[in-house]
Amino acid sequence: MHTVERVGELDVIVKPSPVAMVWNEPGRPHDALAAPGVRLAPGEALVEVELATICGSDVHTVRGDRAAAAPLVLGHEQVGRVVAIGEGAVRADGSLLELGDRVVWSVTVSCGECDRCRRGLTQKCRSLAKYGHERVHRGWELSGGFATHVQVRAGTAIVRVSETLPAAVAAPASCATATAMAALDAAAERVELAGALVLVTGAGQIGLSVAAMAIESGAEVIVADPDASRREFARRIGAVPVDPNAKGASPDRLEAVLTRFEARGFREVVVAVEASGAATAVRTVFDVVGVGGVAVIIGSGAPGAEVSVDPESIVRRLVSVTGVHNYSAPQLVRAVEFLERSWQPLRLDELVGATHPLTEIDLALDEAATGRYVRVGVAPGRRPV
Question: Are residues 28 and 74 in the same domain?
Fold first, then answer.
């Protein structure tokens, strides 16, 4: 149990000291960094982490697949409780933040005033900072979710979650669920989701979230993933699973599934969402989306193989191609609302298949890299077994 003491208007002393796990380079274990004192500027908050979940981008970073400003504290999917507040700190809806609030928060910190923020692209702010992505520096040591506490800065969208929402459901909202909401918003700007045939490639946390939201919107959804357990989860939430590795006359091939949908009157895929990052899946999305359809690319968040595109085919089919990276504050709010009403019937808590103590962060990341679970959890309050 941590105790928090205010020292003056800005300084906060936490006992025992907050600890962040610092990553330095591929192949090297994390180092523990203690931060006994925190200075909260106006609009900031200190949140004690209840649970963090490991995003695929965290795995890409520790493997060296993507550039990172080391040393850094990884982690940007988490839920926690507010234990100290700077003057004027607010939630995403503009109401005042309160001590004891159970919250999730955006992966991005935005100024709200630059040209991009004024255009609604707060996730691409000119002075952007991101939780779990910034080099550790004095004054913001607690900058990622793989820590006992996170210093949440002004310009962050903070959303309160209910006490009954499981931590395993709430934590991914800060990245996967809100990004899924942004992906469907991008599609819905161009086509009506109700009654549409939607293809989702990749049944990770984002892909399954996209599928669940699209089904709720009235769409018919196909989910393609090579993992049988993830395909089964997709089936349980109402999607039709496809095995991209199926051969020959298998009924699980995409072509066979599309033929069955055509017999029901669904002539073509109207929305295709790529959530895996695999070049073959990107190729599939471009090839399958129908006339006037939308291809939404969200899985390519790390460098990968290039994919060739036939521009004439895109033009003649009137296809819209859009990339989605992160999300806006209202999309995080709506993502939480979706989770609050849907997690029980969909059993979304089952997507976090294992949880480790913070001290076992390297083991947790290794387990996440196997792909055995959709998400792996990290709980600072859990003791090693």
Answer: yes
Distance (Å, rounded) from C-alpha 365 to C-alpha 120?
Answer: 34
Domain closes at, from 323, 349, 364: 323
The kind and range of the H/E element at 225 are none
Q: Summarize the confidence of residues 361-385 as an average pLDDT.
A: 90
Regarding pTM above 0.70, the answer is yes
- Which residues in 68-224 belong to E strands, given as ranges? 77-85, 102-105, 108-109, 129-130, 149-152, 158-160, 197-201, 220-224
Query: In terms of domains, do 217 and 357 share one?
Result: no
| Helix 176-188 with 205-216: angle, nearest 10 deg | 50
Q: Examine the domain organization and report whether 266 and 333 are in the same domain.
A: no
Same domain, 255 and 293: yes
158 and 230, same domain (yes or no) = no
> What CA–CA distance (Å, rounded) separates 269 from 186?
16
Strands 375-379 and 352-357: parallel
Residue of 246, 253, 323 whose CA lies nearest to 288? 253
Domain of 45 in residue numbering reads as: 3-172+328-379
pLDDT for the residue numbered 383: 67
Pick from 36, 174, 153, 34: nearest CA to 86: 153
The answer to the question of residue 384 being in a domain is no
* 20 and 166 fall within a common domain: yes
Residue 194's closest CA among 217, 163, 162, 224? 217
Please check whether residue 2 is in contact with residue 116, taking contact to mean a CB–CB distance below 8 angstroms: no
Kindly report which listed range (11-15, 71-75, 186-190, 332-336) carries the lowest average pLDDT score: 11-15
The last residue of a domain, from among 308, 323, 338? 323
| 12 close to 35: Cβ distance less than 8 angstroms | no
Q: What is the pLDDT of residues 213-269, one digit of tens each?
A: 999 999 999 999 999 999 999 999 999 999 999 998 899 999 999 999 999 999 999
Decide if pLDDT at 310 tops 70.
yes
**What CA–CA distance (Å, rounded) separates 95 from 348?**
29
Determine the Cα–Cα distance for residues 255 and 224; give it in Å rounded to an integer: 12
Give per-residue burial for 234-268: e unless 16+ CB within 10 Å, then b: beebbbbbbbbebeeeeebbbeebbeebeeeebeb
